[in-house]
Structure formats: C-alpha cells, structure tokens
Amino acid sequence: MAVVDRIAPGDCLEDALSILTRCGLGEPALWIRPFRHLSEGEKFRARLARAIALHAHLSSRVPLLCDEFGSLLHRRAARAIAYGLRRLTTQYGLTVVVASAHDDILPDLQPDQLIRFDGRGRSRVETLPVRPGRTFSLRRRMRIEAGGKRDYDSFAAMHYRATDELGFVDKVFVLRERRGGDPLGIVVYAHPPLELAMRNRCTDNRFRGNPARLNREMRILRRLVIHPDVRGCGLGHFLVRKTLPLAGTRFVECLASMGAYNPVFEKAGMTRIGRYETPAATQEALRRLRSMGINPAGRDFPDRIARRRRVRAIVAGVVRTWYEGTTGRGERRVEKQSPQRLAQTFRALLGSRPVYYLWERRANPKE
Q1: What CATH number should be reported for the domain whose range is 4-127?
Q2: Splitting the chain (367 residues) into consecutive groups of 10 residues, what average pLDDT does each group show?
Q3: Rounded Cα–Cα distance for residues 143 and 22 (Å)
Q4: DSSP secondary structure string, 225-250?
Q5: Model pTM?
Q6: How, if at all, do strands 143-147 and 123-127 pair?
Q7: Which CATH architecture has domain 139-275?
Q8: Nearest by Cα to 330 from 319, 341, 340, 343
C-alpha cells in the first residue's frame, strides 16, 4: 500500500498530504512509495503522520503516546520532527505524550509540561511557557552562501524531478547548517523560457517578443530542495524569501507542480497567479494515442514507443515542445532519449498542472 493511502484512509486527500508535508514527507515520489521501501527515518515520519491523522478524527481526545521519540534518527532530524509535531499538536488540538532520553528536542517540541525522572523512582514536574510562532531552533545558526551548479549534484536525487536539466543557470544559493557546514538546502535561479502565457497575462505582455528585456529583468526559480532531515520546518520559504532579492532582477517567476498542496512560495512572498491546465496540444496527443489503442499508463507504453514510429512521433512531439519552452534544445534531446525516458516524461506532463508564481522587487522609496 502506498504511503498516502495509509494516512487516514478514506479521508480528504488534501488533509493527508498536508499532514505528510508537516511531518517532512512532502515529496510526491514518497507519497506513492510502498511503506516497506522507505528509509528508517521516513518510516518514523510516516508512522507519526498516520497516528496524528487518526487521532485528529477521533471523537474523544485519547492521548497519542510516542515512546523513544526519534532515538534512532540523526539528532537534527529528531529536532525537525519535534518541531513539526508541536505545530500539528496545536493545529489539531491533540494531547501527545512523548518519552525520550534526549533533551535537545525540547526547544522545538515546546512541551506544556515536562516530567523528569532521576532514575531512583522520583520525578519532577515542570510547567513550561509555550511560545507560539517560534522558529526551528537550528535556523538561528544556519547560513546562506553563494554556490554553483556543482552544488546541486548532491541534492538532485532528493528532488522528484531528479533527471531533468536545470536549463541556463544564473545563480545558486546553498543553505548550510552553519558557516561552512553541511548543506541542508539549495535554490537555483535560471534564465526563463521565452514565452509563458500566464507571465504575459499578468505583466500586460511586457516580455512578449522581447527576449532582451526578459533576459535583463526576469529569472525563474528552477529548483528548491531541502534536505530530508529538516523538511517541514519552514526552511524552504525562509531560503526563498532571503534569496529572491539576491537574484538580481526585477522579477522572479516559478512554476510549481506542488503549489496546490504546499504554499511554500506564497509564504516566501511570491504572488500566486494561477494554475495551468493541460495544454490543448497535449490533450490532442492523448486523444490520438487512445484512438490507436495506446494507453500511456500501461506497462507496454515504452514498448509501443519503441516499436511504432507513429507513436514515438506523437510522444516525442509533446516532449520536444515542453523542452523548447523550458530548457531549450528540444530536438536534439528527444532524439537521444530512450523509449522508457520518453514514456516517463510524457506521463509526467499529462499529470502536470503547475501553479505559476511571480515576485516583483519593491521599488526603493528613496529612489
């Protein structure tokens, strides 16, 4: 059973995805992965998400018990999960009892009451103040540093579009645990595609047919990746918000496939313009394939692409158009792709309805 189906089965999909994201499982590839294929840290997060989802819908407030909380995880991952648990506890009005031998989770867990045992059968109860809106404790020492395209190599496998190229990269910024420390996040700004319908609509065609102005005034946020250890702690919108002014252009745009479920770019200060529909040309390609008895979701789809030139031509046409509008060199790239890769990309495009965001630098009132 896929992970998402284990989270409050039969309930609203958006609620399940929201809880998974808060627990640090915000990647579509993880949602559809069988539980047994998750790492130990991911399994812990998935179990926690399921428990929270089930308790949130109980008529009586039965306490949720978490024994040995995060004891097998990297300590920064345990602190991140504690931070997410506190937020979900507040959001759903839960009562949670956490048992742990580690004090480092306290600043992020923010328990209302703390019971300490001294090992001699005695205990001491403390009532602690809760500070709403408190940021993730590790964020205070994190640093954002300029990086390069090579820095993305260590993050590529963490993104659900790991095989796609980044296009013409302009600037890269890396979020580190401390100055010169482990990289925990990355954001990539690149030169934008020549034409986007929503861009033209919301900018009154400012860039239509004017590539020189587009290159001068616009960048596209091509990738945002946060290390799995610290997802669900607000570091994504923190990194974007801090680096948007550093992109060096008046405008920054973004196409986010997960924008419907994760408002990270809105929290960072970008404006949601709208959500794209599946292009008419892609819908027509799907109709033609179905009229030929081809099912793009079928296991034999790559084999059909390999054996039938007409099928390959239809699929390659859709993929080529998408490449030309995003990273360029569509003809050359499609020619080299295997039937399996073409099938994978075509399927992804069928289900892709990205949200378009735009950020504009505020004018300096002194100017």
Answers
A1: 3.40.50.300
A2: 71 74 78 83 89 79 88 89 90 91 93 89 88 86 95 84 74 95 96 92 96 97 92 93 97 87 90 88 92 90 94 93 67 82 84 88 62
A3: 23
A4: EE-GGGTTSSHHHHHHHHHGGGG-SS
A5: 0.78
A6: unpaired
A7: 3-Layer(aba) Sandwich (3.40)
A8: 319
